[in-house]
Amino acid sequence: MELRRVVITGAGTINPLGNSVEEYWKNLKNGVSGAGPITHFDTTLHTTKFACEVKDFDAIQYMERKEIRKYDLYTQYAFASTDQAIKDSGIDLEKIDGDRVGVIWGAGIGGLQTFYEEARAYKDERPRFSPFFIPKMIANIAGGLVSIKYGFRGPNYTTVSACASASHAMIDAMNMIRMGKADIMITGGSEAGVNEAGVAGFNSMRALSTRNDDPSTASRPFDKDRDGFVMGEGSAAFVFEEYESAVKRGAKIYAEVVGGGMSADAFHMTAPDPDGKGAKLVMKWAIEDAGLKPEDIDYINVHGTSTPLGDIAEPKAILSTFGNHAYKLSISSTKSMTGHLLGAAGAIEGLASVLAMQNNTVPPTINHFTDDPEIDDKLDFTFNVAKEREINVALSNTFGFGGHNATVVFKKL
C-alpha cells in the first residue's frame, strides 16, 4: 500500500528548561542547565540531592482544581503539554471527526509518586488505599484522560519501554496515520520521577551523578569524568497530522516525520551492548524506513546520558552506521541541559531535533571539560556552544533499560 505522509502541526512542552516551546528552545540554544537542588522532597537521607526539576508549573492553568487532586504529576504534565500542542496546531475541535483522532502516549514509570505516597500512608497512617490509587498510578492513564477530555476516539494506548517509551509512541502514531487508521494523532510522553522512590532507586543502582557540590555541571555526556545521569521530569506533546489535510487547512508545519526504527540489544538488563549493536540496527532501520541513506542525515540528538558505559557504546554505533559520514554529522546530547526525562526523553529530544532543523542551529552538549580517550574525538559533539549549520534531516535516539532502542527521523519540508 502507498503510505500517507505525516507532519507535525503542533507542539507543547513542560520541562526543566521551560514551560513553553519558545522558552525551551531559547535555553537549549544558550546552553542553560536545568539542574539544581531538589525542592520536591527532603534529600537529607539521599545520596543525590539535585535534579532537573520543572520550575514554576501551575497546573490550574490547564485543568480544574478537582482534576488536579485525581491526577499524578506525570498526568498533569501530559495535560499541560497536550493543551499547548492542540492550541498551537490551530485545529478546530468542533470540526474534526473524533473517530479519526487517536492518542498514543509514552511513559516509562507512570504514577510513581502516587504509588509511593499511597504505600507509605497505608503503612504509617491508615489501613486503606485511596479509591484513586490505581487509576491515578497506572502508566496508561495520561493518554486515556487526554482522549476523554477532547473526545478523541481513535487508536489509544501507552507504550512502556523505559527511556525509549515516547519514541516508540511517536513511531506508532506516525504509522497509524501512514496506514490510514487515523488522520490526526496526539503523541509524546511524560514522566515525574523526581521523588523519593525514583531518586533512591536509581541511587541504589549507582546510575545517578552524585556531584552535589556543582549540580549545573553534573550532566557531562561524553566527558571523561562523567559519573552518572541527572534525573529530569516533564513532558512534550505533538500533533501529528496527515500531510494533505494539514496543507489543505493551511496549517503551520514544523517538520515531516519520515521514519522510525526499533530494535533490541538482547544483551543485559540495564547495560548497553558494549559495541552498540542494537543502537546500530535501530539507526540503520530508521534511515531505511525513511527511504533515506546514511549520508542524508545532518544531525543526531543522541541518547547521551552521561553514564560510563552508554556514552562509549553510542559513538561506536554511530561510526559503525555512518562510516566516514559520521565525521560530517553534528551530534549533541541535550540531556546535558534537561537531565534525563526517562520515558519522556524521546518526546523532548524529538522536539529539540525539530527545533534545531527549524532554526538551522545545533544545540550544544554542555559541561564538556575533559576528552575521554575511549571516545573518538574527531566526532562533532557540539561541545559547550551551539553551532549554526543547515539541518535538513535529523535523528533522535533513545535507548532504554531492557535493551529497548527507538530512533525517529524528522525531515525539513
Structural class: alpha/beta
Query: What's the number of extended β-strand segments?
Result: 14
Q: Looking at the chains present, what oligomeric state does this protein adopt?
A: single chain
Number of helices: 13
Distance between the termini: 23 Å
List low-confidence stretches: none
CATH class of the largest domain: Alpha Beta
Kindly state the percentage of residues in helix: 25-40%
CATH architecture field of the largest domain: 3-Layer(aba) Sandwich
- The chain-level mean pLDDT equals 97
Q: Would you identify the CATH H-level superfamily of the largest domain?
A: Thiolase/Chalcone synthase
Beta fraction: 15-25%
User: Shape, please?
Assistant: globular
CATH topology of the largest domain, which one? Peroxisomal Thiolase, Chain A, domain 1
Major beta sheet summary? 10 strands, mixed
Instruction: Give the SSE order as H and E letters.
Output: EHEEHHEHHHEHEHEHEHEHEHHEEEE
Strand order of the main beta sheet, please? 5-4-6-7-1-8-14-13-9-10
Radius of gyration: 20 Å
What is the number of independent domains? 2
Task: Write up this protein.
Its EC number is 2.3.1.179. Residues 3-412 form the Ketosynthase family 3 (KS3) domain. InterPro entries: 3-oxoacyl-ACP_synth-2, Beta-ketoacyl_synthase, Ketoacyl_synth_AS, Ketoacyl_synth_C, Ketoacyl_synth_N, PKS_Beta-ketoAc_synthase_dom, Thiolase-like. It catalyses: (9Z)-hexadecenoyl-[ACP] + malonyl-[ACP] + H(+) = 3-oxo-(11Z)-octadecenoyl-[ACP] + holo-[ACP] + CO2; a fatty acyl-[ACP] + malonyl-[ACP] + H(+) = a 3-oxoacyl-[ACP] + holo-[ACP] + CO2. It is an enzyme of class 2 (transferase). The protein has 413 residues and is an alpha/beta fold. The chain folds into two domains: 6-255, 3-Layer(aba) Sandwich (Peroxisomal Thiolase, Chain A, domain 1), CATH 3.40.47; 261-411, Peroxisomal Thiolase, Chain A, domain 1, CATH 3.40.47.10. The protein has 13 helices and 14 strands. It has a ten-stranded mixed β-sheet with strand order 5-4-6-7-1-8-14-13-9-10, with helices on both faces. A two-stranded antiparallel ribbon has the order 2-3. Helix 11 (310-322) links the parallel strand 9 (299-301) and strand 10. Helix 7 (165-178) packs across helix 13 (345-359) and helix 10 crosses helix 11 (310-322). The longest helix is centred in the first third of the chain and has 17 residues, at 73-89. The model has no long low-confidence stretch (mean pLDDT 97).
